[in-house]
Every structure is written in C-alpha cells, then in structure tokens.
Amino acid sequence: MKKILAASILALSMATSGMAYADPLKIGMITTLSGGGAGLGVDARDGFMLALKQSGVKDIEVVTEDDAQKPELAVQIADKMIQSDKVDLLTGIIWSNLAMAVVPNAVAQGKFYLSVNAGPSALAGAKCDKNYFNVAYQNDNFHEAMGNYANTAGYKKVFILAPNYPAGTDSLNGFKRFYKGELAGEVYTKLGQTDYAAEIAQIRDSGADSVFFFLPGGMGIAFMKQYAQSGVETPVMGPGFSFDQDVLGAIGDAAVGVKNSASWSKDLDNAANKKFVEGFQAEYKRLPSIYAAQAYDTANLIISASAKASVKDADAFRAALKEAKFDSVRGKFKFNSNNHPIQDIYVREVVKEGDVLTNKIVATSFTDHEDAYAKDCKM
Amino acid sequence: MSTALLIEQILNGLQFGVMLFLMAAGLTLIFGVMGLINLAHGSLYMIGAFACAAVAAATGSFWLGLVASLAAAAAAGALVELVVIRRLYDRDHLDQVLATFALILIFSEGTRWLFGSFPLYLDIPSALSGAVQLPGGGRYPLYRLTIIGVGIAVAVGLYLLISKTRLGMRIRAGESDREMIAALGVDIRTLYTVVFALGAALAGLAGALVGALQSVQVGMGEPVLILAFVVIVIGGIGSIKGALVGAILVGLVDTLGRFLLPKLFAAFMGPAQGATAGAAIASMLIYIVMALILAFRPKGLFAANA
C-alpha cells in the first residue's frame, strides 16, 4: 500500500513538473453558474473561454467554479484556488457583494484580480489596489450616463426606483449626480421583490414624465412586464443590465423602444467586436450580452499581458496589464489611475431584428468617461 | 394621494394575498393531514411556471399552458410523494426538512438542465390584457382582477371539497386521527398521494398565473415559499381558513406598508431618507405582524388542532 502511494505521488509530481514550461498562467474563475443569477455568470464564462479559444494560446489554464451567488462560498473557493490550485490570477465575479468579500483578501496575498463585471465604489476609491483591475466599469457609470441622457432628452420630472441595497443606492446616486431636473418620486424596493404593482400605481399617480429604474436580473423582467400590462404610458429608461441579451427574451415586446445605457453594444462597428459577436453566435448559438463582452475583453487583456511578461514577474505583468494593449470590443480602452476604465458610454435602444430582441446604439452619452472615485485612490 | 390610488393599492394587496393563498393552502393541507414540512413546495410552483411557459411557447396558447402547469405540478407532486415523501412520514421534522431541501436542489438543477440558465418568456393571454376602469377614476389590470377571481374560486372550491365531499371527510379525519382512519379501512396511502398532488397542483397553478406577471426562472419558488410559511404560521398550521385569512392579511399589510410607510417617514425625515427608512421598515412589516400575532395567539389565528 505504501509503495503504491509513494509511486503515485512520484508519478503525480513528475506529471506536474512535466507541465512546467515557459511559465504557464493559471487563472481561477469564480462566477455564478447556478441559481437565479446563473445567466450572467454563464455568459461571462462563455465570453472568457471564447477569447482563449480564438487566440489559440496553450499556456493559459483556467479553473472554473460556481459561487451560487453566495459571498461565503465565493470566499471559500477563492481560498481553495489560491492555496491548493495555486492560481496566479482570479476573475469572474458578477456581484458587488461577492467582489467585496473576495477581492481585498486576494490582492492582499499578492494575487491579481481582474473584474469582469462588479465595480463597487469602495474598490475604486480609498480601497483601490495595484493588483486589482476592473475591465468592466465602476458601478455608478451606466446610471450616470442615463442621468446625463435624461437632461438631453428633455425630461424634467423623473420617477426613480432601485432595490434597497448598496448597488441600488449607488445607482440612484449615480443618476442624480448628472440629472438636473426634479424628481417625481424616489422609491427603494426590497431586494428580490417580484411584484411591482404598488410602485407602478405610485408612478401612475406621480405625474412623472419618465421613469428611471435599476432592477437587475429577474426583478427587471418582472417590473417591465407588469409595467407594460398596467397600461401606464410614461417612457422608461435604465442601465443596460435590465435590457441586455440575457433578459430581453423573457421581457418580450414590452421592452421595444426602451433607452438604456452601456459601454458596449453588439452593433459597435469595429473588427474586434465583429469577430466576437460572430464567434460567440457560432460557438454558443445565441447573441452575447454585455457580461460576455466584458469577460471577452478581460481574457484578451490577460492574453496580451502574458505575451509581454511572465506573471511570476509581478511588476512587469502589472505594467503590461496597465498598458491595456489589446483589441477591445468596445473599440478603445484604457485604464485610469485607479485601474478602472476610461471609456465611452452609449445610449442604446431596444429593437426587434426579425424575431430577436436586441439593442442598437442611438447616442453617445459620455466620451472618455472617468468614475467619480478615482481622486480618492492613492496608489 | 387620491382615493383611486388607495383603491388600486388595496386591490394589489388582495391580488398578492390571493396568490399567496394558492401556495399556502397546499402547504397547510400537507402539513395538517400528513404532518409533513415540505420545503420543496416552492419547486412545485416553479415547475408549474416552467410547464406553462414551455407549453405556451410551443402551442401559442396560454390556456393550454395553464392546463399543463396543473398537470405537471400534480404529476411531479404525486411522483415525489411516491418516491421520497412516503418514507418520511414517520421520521422527525428535521429529516423531512433535510430531504425536502435536497429536493429543492434537485428540482432547481434539473430545471436548469432542461431549460437552460436564462429566464423564459411567458406573457398574459391577449384576452386578459389591458385595464378596466375602477370607480373613483383609477384603472386596474384585468389580469390581476382575474387572479383575484381565480383565488376566490379556489377558496370556495376547497371549502366545498373539504366540508361536503367524501374525500374532504377523509382529509378531515386524517387531520384529527391518522391511526384511526387507517384502522377503519381507508386507504391512507392513496389519500396522502391525492392530497399531496392536490397541494402541488395549487402551487403549480400559482406559479403559472404569477409566471405571466414576473420572470420564469430557476429559484423563483423560494422567496414565495418563505412568505407562504409566514402565512400558515399566522393563520394556524393545518387550517385552510387560516391560510386564506393569513394570506389576505399578509398581502394587504405588505402592499400597503410598502406604499404608505415611505410617505409617512418622508413627512418627518425628508424624501430621500424617508424613502430608504420607510422601505427598510416596510420589508420587515409582515414579520413584525407575525411576531405580534404569535405573541398573543401562539398557535396562529385559526389553530386547526387547538
């Protein structure tokens, strides 16, 4: 028995040492693959893997695990990936509360973290870190863009609505930072609420000229369907999350014509985006969402950096990441001083192409937009 | 604040309550007759919604979907009772909770495996779209009025079933003395399967009706399940009447709380802070009500075996 054990340990160690060529990069991807939020994580994972497949690189290995949208589970997985899988870099988390639980700890242990989606304000400001890069956005950005758009569109009396949790308050604060008109009402709903009849009645009663709402995932689907059924005619708008490819099918025609903000859209005209959208459709037989686009960019950023420097040389690798020399599906991409993107944010409109609901860009709300917290980041 | 708005909010509360009743009736029936805590009741709700969405998408008819949701949930309920639940009646509640929790996970991942990770589309039938004029100038969606009607019909139907039929007599007998009714020669095993399938069908109906309003997605049943438990605790475990009163109470308190509390707090604290504080208190309100009721009536409003 002892002999067999010894032999297998020897064989294992030979197997691992045999793989050690040219400093391979090991990536730990923690994302949501089960539960109600799984659609977002599945899209992020698929976008990430598509980029690796298209690039043909052989020395990048990815371990993927499901966090089930639970912070405590995400922390355990991160520990396991760092301690026993020996990953060099973590990525993949969709939700801000999970990112807050995982990121500070991971970067404190000298690992890199690249965010494909979550961008909590704390990590963009005072708690920023040289090893934390956000490839997506800072949480407030899309909401700020919609606040700015409300001015351009001539709205004077907007009713605003978000769930009562940190990202919800960030959202309404972001909207109010740029919106100049008065508010017809400001309502915080319960996180996970699925019936909005009471809020819709208030909107009807308030005399608002438009409605801005941030309700990610199933909450947004429920709100939009009930809003359409209620017969209220006031136009709605929101950040791109509530009107992206993952939920449009479930909302149905009620979403047509709604304006929403995002840093990416499938009709952005650049070569990288064409390759991404066509590749994604060919590989997975569906249209990509913003989560897939951001993860695709994240993977390409990692590939570009690892071509320049080994991850074992942390300073050189970090510098290569910061340069951000990769073909972004957003056309252009660069990092601000706090390692968050400086990027254009567009206003999109939901349209019907054949039988499929999707978005097209109708305006640019911000050019080279920076987040409001960069000045608090001392790096 | 106009009267029309208040009437509309009361109707919203009623509609929410009636929907909770469909869930709570099955739950309380199963607990009352078999003494079983069924955490997987929310999964049956989800199965109803998915069956309705899938059949409606394939055939184009919401009504066929509704029939399918009843059939699918009842079949799933009967199957689960035969395969798993049957072995749990003599075990203690902790074993039941563990086993039915495992069922939630199995149903959730099974549904994802079949239908994928993205929410499904299900819209209300065109015959029920649009809004009707209310007295006082308000307008109210016809579909929500229909849900209230369906809920009342189910409540009346259950009352007749339990108080007037032979099956109902056996259900009542099963509630008060399980051993005796078996000794009298009633096939208690079939009775349990029938009651379980009936409760499941009601959950499936609720899932399909609500699925058209909300999003049809994996995990949609669990938030409703928690509220359904609150309802049966308030109403008295095992009592259908209690489930009805509890459900309407929870529906009205939750809806009116969400609507009125932020306004009330805004009067003292200013709009922004009042909205946040009011929303926070409103989300706790039904649990506060539950705690108060339990403080004065520990067995709930209409305790079945009091």
UniProtKB/TrEMBL annotation, chain A:
<keyword id="KW-0813">Transport</keyword>
<dbReference type="GO" id="GO:0006865">
    <property type="term" value="P:amino acid transport"/>
</dbReference>
<dbReference type="InterPro" id="IPR051010">
    <property type="entry name" value="BCAA_transport"/>
</dbReference>
<dbReference type="Pfam" id="PF13458">
    <property type="entry name" value="Peripla_BP_6"/>
</dbReference>
<keyword id="KW-0029">Amino-acid transport</keyword>
<protein>
    <submittedName>
        <fullName>ABC transporter substrate-binding protein</fullName>
    </submittedName>
</protein>
<feature type="domain" description="Leucine-binding protein">
    <location>
        <begin position="24"/>
        <end position="354"/>
    </location>
</feature>
<keyword id="KW-0732">Signal</keyword>
<dbReference type="InterPro" id="IPR028082">
    <property type="entry name" value="Peripla_BP_I"/>
</dbReference>
<feature type="signal peptide">
    <location>
        <begin position="1"/>
        <end position="22"/>
    </location>
</feature>
<dbReference type="InterPro" id="IPR028081">
    <property type="entry name" value="Leu-bd"/>
</dbReference>
<comment type="similarity">
    <text>Belongs to the leucine-binding protein family.</text>
</comment>
Automatic annotation (TrEMBL), chain B:
<feature type="transmembrane region" description="Helical">
    <location>
        <begin position="16"/>
        <end position="37"/>
    </location>
</feature>
<protein>
    <submittedName>
        <fullName>Branched-chain amino acid ABC transporter permease</fullName>
    </submittedName>
</protein>
<feature type="transmembrane region" description="Helical">
    <location>
        <begin position="70"/>
        <end position="89"/>
    </location>
</feature>
<feature type="transmembrane region" description="Helical">
    <location>
        <begin position="225"/>
        <end position="253"/>
    </location>
</feature>
<keyword id="KW-1133">Transmembrane helix</keyword>
<feature type="transmembrane region" description="Helical">
    <location>
        <begin position="101"/>
        <end position="122"/>
    </location>
</feature>
<dbReference type="InterPro" id="IPR052157">
    <property type="entry name" value="BCAA_transport_permease"/>
</dbReference>
<comment type="similarity">
    <text>Belongs to the binding-protein-dependent transport system permease family. LivHM subfamily.</text>
</comment>
<feature type="transmembrane region" description="Helical">
    <location>
        <begin position="142"/>
        <end position="162"/>
    </location>
</feature>
<dbReference type="GO" id="GO:0005886">
    <property type="term" value="C:plasma membrane"/>
</dbReference>
<keyword id="KW-0029">Amino-acid transport</keyword>
<keyword id="KW-0812">Transmembrane</keyword>
<dbReference type="Pfam" id="PF02653">
    <property type="entry name" value="BPD_transp_2"/>
</dbReference>
<dbReference type="GO" id="GO:0022857">
    <property type="term" value="F:transmembrane transporter activity"/>
</dbReference>
<feature type="transmembrane region" description="Helical">
    <location>
        <begin position="44"/>
        <end position="64"/>
    </location>
</feature>
<keyword id="KW-0813">Transport</keyword>
<dbReference type="GO" id="GO:0006865">
    <property type="term" value="P:amino acid transport"/>
</dbReference>
<keyword id="KW-1003">Cell membrane</keyword>
<feature type="transmembrane region" description="Helical">
    <location>
        <begin position="190"/>
        <end position="213"/>
    </location>
</feature>
<feature type="transmembrane region" description="Helical">
    <location>
        <begin position="274"/>
        <end position="296"/>
    </location>
</feature>
<keyword id="KW-0472">Membrane</keyword>
<dbReference type="InterPro" id="IPR001851">
    <property type="entry name" value="ABC_transp_permease"/>
</dbReference>
